[in-house]
Amino acid sequence: MNLNIIGRHFEITKALKEHIENKFTKIKNHFDHVIDAKFILSVEKFNNIVDATIHLPHQDINAKSIDEDMYKSIDLVINKIDKQVIKYKEKFRDHHQADGSIKHEPSD
Fold this sequence. Notes:
Elements: E1 2-8, H1 14-30, E2 36-44, E3 47-55, E4 60-67, H2 70-91
């Protein structure tokens, strides 16, 4: 899995990079088939903007968060993506029984 972190209008610090990597493990715990992830961090006036895109086998998931604190903005975008990943996982889960038959209790 590739994790790309890009900074616009400022330098990405080691602490920010580690924070994103640590928070991203939350998504990996729910779904481990993430192919690619891209985080774009930018600063505009007093707003810290985080735009995240992750590529899954059948779909791309995108989320954006704006806050005055960069760390809070990262946390918000991770939570948004995590909710979408859980929804994606439920959508592609096979809800059918393994053998295809209906199980009945034996009646005596």
